[in-house]
Structures are given as structure tokens and as C-alpha cells.
Amino acid sequence: MIEVLCLLLGRILLLLVGGYELMWRLRERLNALVVRSYDLWRSRAAREAHERRVLADCRSQLTKTPQHLVLVISPGDAGVDAVLLSRIFDFALDVGIKHVSLYDRRAKGRGYVDMADLCRSTSADTGSCLKWPPVASPSKLENQPKNGQKTNGYVNGSHSPQLQLHQISASDGHALIADVCRELYEGRETDLVQSLLKQKREALTEQISDMLSKRLGFEAPEPELGIVFARQTCTYGLLPWHARFTEFHTHPSGRHFDVEAFASILCKYSRCEQRWGT
Fold first, then answer.
1. Which coenzymes or cofactors are required (predicted)?
2. Which of 5, 217, 224, 266 is the most exposed place for a label (fewest CB within 10 A)?
3. Which residues of the chain have pLDDT under 70?
């Protein structure tokens, strides 16, 4: 009798959890539909003016700005498309972020976005490094800080009018680290590896970082901020070596992402205190 009651209570609990999950998804979809309808109702000029105001207010509150932002898209996410990514790139450009990486774990044909389709590669680009926008527009140049103008307490006279975009694949994660470690092990008798082993650990760490950067095909600082589009916080194997000190923020799948959400994440990152050692 007790076993039957336990099974019954377990099924009731599963039904309650499933019902809550369904209601949560319906609520998020309805909220996203309302916000998108409002964006469609407004003119493009009004929407862009509103985004500029929000980002300008955000910049005035930031005490630090990430130089490298990484976007992680879960395999089951269906809300992040090329249009949303283009807007995120514009947001990042306006606040002064210099590098944006995209790690899309969706399969091709199921929402996967290839950044090569969004922007062109120049002769100066190497590997998977691209530029955004493809052609720097005069309006973007006007919005950038002038030489000598201070932004968040720092002189930002060398701000680039274009973003450096990087496409990261699943093979750039653990498999890349394994290849580097295998190469170091095979060359363990060489003078280079022997000298690294005799030095402090930082020398070997720097050597591994350099080897990984060369294999990635682009040069960029380690990402300081990551936005995960998923139901739970998971990096899905994203560059485990480079993302050691990355501050991750999860944006639930199905929830509408707009300039307010982007500014909120930047403000949270600006307020967080990161410590290394004592």
C-alpha cells in the first residue's frame, strides 16, 4: 500500500513539474510575442533611437567594459537567429566591445548561424576572423568616442569602428587542448620543452596559450563575459582553457532578448568583483 502511494505521489509530482514547465514556456513565449509586436509597431528610426539612449545610459554606469564577449547558443535554442545576432553585434559595437565570438552548438539546418553569411572577410582577416559591420557606416563613426574623449574613466582614443568576429566550433575545445598536450609530450626531449619544465609553471601555461591561439586561427584576448542562451548554465565545451576567468550570464531560451537585456547583463558584469589569488 505504501509503495502504491509513493508511486502515485511521484506521478503527481511529475505532472506538477511538467505543468509548471509548460506554463513557464507559454508565459515566456507570450511575453516575447508582445515585445516583438511592439518593436514591429514602432518605426525603425524610433527603435534605433531608443536603443542608442539605453546603451548611452548603460555606458555611463559601467566601471569596466569587456574587450571580448562570447555568445554560447545551446543545441535546443530556437530564438537566436541571424537578425538577433546582427543586433547584438551592433550593441557590442556601440558600447566599445572589440571582439565577439559565436559558439553555436546547433546543427546546420536546425538554426545554426554561419557568420560568414552575415559579414564578409577582408584580405587582412585570418582564419575564422571576420569584421562587423562589413562596411563601416558614417553613423557608426559619428557615435564613437572622439580622440581624447573619456569613456568610463578611460581615454578611448583608439576605438575601432568595426568589431572583430570569431566563429568557434566544437573541435576548438577539448580536442584542441588534447592535440597541444600530445605535441608537447611527443617533443618532451626537445630543448624547448625541457627549458619550460625547468621554469615556473607560468612559462608552460603561456606556451600552451600561444599554441592554442595559433590553432584557433585568430588572436583575441580571453573572453571576460559570456552570454549563454539556454535553459541552464552550461558552456557546452566552450574553449575550456580560454574561458577560465569568464563571467557567464544565462539568458533562458524562449525569453525575448533586446537592448534592455543586453544592458542589464553588462551592468551585472560591471558590478561583479573578480579576484585572482591573494
1. Mg(2+)
2. 5
3. 24-25, 27-29, 31-41, 120-129, 135-160, 275-278
CA distances from 84 to 15, 91, 207, 249 (A): 34, 11, 37, 17
For the chain, give the DSSP string: -HHHHHHHHHHHHHHHHHHHHHHHHHHHHHHHHHHHHHHHHS-HHHHHHHHHHHHHHHHHH-S---SEEEEEE-TT--S--HHHHHHHHHHHHHHT--EEEEEE-SPTTTT---GGGTSPPPTT--TTEEEESSS--HHHHHHSPPTT-EETTEE-TT--SSEEEEEE-GGGSHHHHHHHHHHHHHTTTSHHHHHHHHS-HHHHHHHHHHHHHHHHTS--PPPSEEEEESSS---TT--TTTTTT-EEEEE-TTS---HHHHHHHHHHHHH-------
pTM of the model: 0.73
How many CA atoms are closer than 13 Å to the CA of 118, on its beta-carbon side?
A: 26
pLDDT tens column, 189-243: 888 888 888 888 888 888 888 888 788 777 788 899 999 999 888 989 888 777 8
pLDDT of residue 147: 40
How far, in Å, CA of 232 to CA of 86, rounded? 24
